[in-house]
Write a structure and sequence with these properties.
Strand content: under 5%
Shape: elongated
Number of strands: 2
Distance between the termini: 79 Å
Order of helices and strands: HHHHHHHHHHHHHHHHEEHHH
Mean pLDDT: 78
Low-confidence stretches: 108-115, 137-144, 205-226, 360-372
Helix content: 55-70%
Length: 372
Amino acid sequence: MEVVLGQVEQLPALLAVSRSALVRDWDSLTLDRALEWARYFQHLYDRFRARPQLREALGRRLRRSRPYPLLGFPALGRCPQLLGLALLENRALPPAACRRLLRSLLQPPGAGTGCDPRGLELLARRKAAACLLALPRRPLRRAPGPEPQLQAEAQLLLSRLREEAQEVGEAAGQQRWLCGVLEQLPQPRTFGVVAAALALLKQGHGAEQAGDRDRHGSGRRGGYQEIAAGDGCSAGLLLSWLLGNQERFAAFCLCLPCSHLAFLAGHYSRLSRSYLDLLTGWGSHLVYDPLQGRWVKSCLDKAKLSWEELREHFSCLCQGSALLKEQTQAALEVLRTQDGDFEVRGLSVWTDLLMEVPIHEHKSNMKTYKIK
């Protein structure tokens, strides 16, 4: 087994060489050897995919060299496609070797040991999607909501997450893969993709999701239940990544519009609780300035929101579902009570929010004068 582990550890080097200028010296025989190694790695994947301990050992050995992008056990199953794509994109590959590669990739089933055409079709779809997403964006008038590029990236992420679930199985392996992918993206973009993915899972009409239903024959009730369970698992993994780090979640809430945050809070109770706790912490660092007659930040590094921004966040929450309105109002009333249950402006930020946020019929007889 140690020999196999040592061989698997060479996969990142093989892929790195296939993307380098070193391939200019490759002839057809060298190319055939590289493709044989790729098929061998694919064979290891088929052999060990049902054996969790060996699968985990192979994944650890792949990650030990810290390749970029991060590789895991599922990469073994896609090795012929990964190698083929790297070589096709490498202009240093000599023409003779390139023709040999194309013949190998385009072999029909049963005509040898070449790549499965279904894998080539998937490779072509992903490459086309990547090229489309890389096109420069132009300012367009469009409806509010995530931009089309973000939605497309979110659909690709969910599609790969579903494939990872089928190939890896255990949630811990899926979580490691997801963390590796998300940490490679620039943070503001990552937050937009995660938010769009969570929204797509709740909207339930994404093109990728519909395609999965058609391919798996999910018109039956059991098929829908299976897809719903898979989407619930995907949402749980995304939320675990997002909420697992307080600073990350705070940055997420600062990057996204209030309306998007309110939509997600209305559909994910785990997120709504953390969101309200975060707003509570930020609001507690506002103090009332009697000279200005307004709430101001007491500590710039802790009070991330101004009074106006905090009010906007709570206003969006109160414009959501009935349940979200009730939760928000209940949270504000508890906070007001903890502050002394005042009904006078300027004594408690939560009292002032209850006065100004458009919550349904607030029946208290609060006075509306300011402290001078």
